[in-house]
Amino acid sequence: MVTDQSAPQAGPIDPEPREECGVFGVWAPGEEVAKLTYYGLYALQHRGQEAAGISVSDGKQVVVFKDLGLVSQVFDEQVLLSLRGHVAVGHCRYSTTGSGTWENAQPTFRTTAAGSGLALGHNGNLVNTAELLERSREAGITIKNGATTDSDLICGLLASAAADKGFEQAAMELLPTLSGAFCLVFADETTLYAARDPHGVHPLVLGRLERGWVVASETAALDIVGASFVREVEPGELLAIDEGGLRSSRFAVPEPKGCIFEYVYLARPDTTISGRSVHATRVEIGRRLASEHPAEADLVIPVPESGTPAAIGYAQASGIPYGQGLVKNAYVGRTFIQPSQTIRQLGIRLKLNPLRDVIRGKRLVVVDDSIVRGNTQRALVRMLREAGALEVHVRIASPPVRWPCFYGIDFASRAELIANGLDFDGIRRSIGADSLGYVSTETLVAASEQPRSRLCMACFDGRYPIPLPGDAMIGKHLLEGLEKGVAGSATPVMVNGYGAEDALQRP
Ligand code: SF4
């Protein structure tokens, strides 16, 4: 057993890397589109757990209902029955630009000078937000009460331009000027639109219902609403769907740079991205991890759930038996009840509990998806030793995370990333493992079956495919800083999730 008295003390447990949002849209006359969207968002809940919202359009009016909380906390039967129409946009949010406030929940809503409504959901993060704010100010677009997101700027610019030329033309002119990662789903009274950035950083897919169309962040959401997969929304493509059918327009030349972290952790295992199953990728990473970093051990256990497929692959390739050594409390991830100090001290036990009978007396290989700050793994190793493990060999299904993400994933600042300050042995000693092995970059690419040239791997190699502005012009709370003193406003009113400032209709 290796211990290191000089290792840093256990700190607070790391939040897992957070997704930036899930988006869903449906155009389907005769269907209960709000309920379809609800189930679509349910399937995408892992992509954002801070807030959820659904807009519906009935040909005459756009109505938005949104609130803080999980999809199941925000919506009930009564609310869904009140949201009637044939076009819907859904969104579940984790805040990567702007605070996690009600005002920043989506779909965000604007009206045009001609009185048309626009509801918009955004997955991703722009990197030219400061420039868009400047453009909004020059165009005289009022900053919406309390909203501090790049998504609201997009919505405002679109609504402003659409008064003269309509949303489709306005989008074709605006989208090429956005820089960064964006999967957008938006709707006016009659038409559903979907657009994906020219790099296709995050996934967005098109599906077919018997009586309509669906767009969603992941193929798993299509499965859950009974839609068949048609194809991915292409990088640089705008789709418009209305009673005239489906129209596709190209607003930029595609330069694919898909996020490799979707395969590692972010996407559901039952999702397919660029033709490759996420589950199969994770199993293959585990298999290759076993040959890159073998271990003398009695049992392979995953850190559930995202480490499970790679642990299965590791066990298959190594011949070491696979077992369930940790039980995850699946419902503790998001609660509005602040834990008491006593509960907080339980740290990792809130999320994971060891199966002592399985672990006791064993040399373990523990497979996790990634290491961010290292606090989780440090607490985990300690917990497994306390549960009776003889040795703990940590294997990681991704390379070391050394760089922050500016395209929509919230890891930590660069200074907080453990791999930014320590070499491999330093990390191993810091987390208290007997051995540590990360999968190589080459292996990760091979397992994804995507050409390296079509992937973003910036959090591993620091090569950002979309140019970044200077430090002062980027960051989660950028707009809160830039807007200080600009967006003076009355306190927005919220009644059961409906925003009075949006002049929305209550059921
Ligand atoms: S930096 Fe990492 S997490 Fe962010 S888009 Fe690129 S691969 Fe994905």
UniProtKB/TrEMBL annotation:
Mg(2+) binds at S306, D368, D369. This is Amidophosphoribosyltransferase. It catalyses: 5-phospho-beta-D-ribosylamine + L-glutamate + diphosphate = 5-phospho-alpha-D-ribose 1-diphosphate + L-glutamine + H2O. It comes from Kibdelosporangium banguiense. Binds 1 [4Fe-4S] cluster per subunit. PANTHER family: AMIDOPHOSPHORIBOSYLTRANSFERASE. In the C-terminal section; belongs to the purine/pyrimidine phosphoribosyltransferase family. Pathway: Purine metabolism; IMP biosynthesis via de novo pathway; N(1)-(5-phospho-D-ribosyl)glycinamide from 5-phospho-alpha-D-ribose 1-diphosphate: step 1/2. The active site is at C21 (nucleophile).
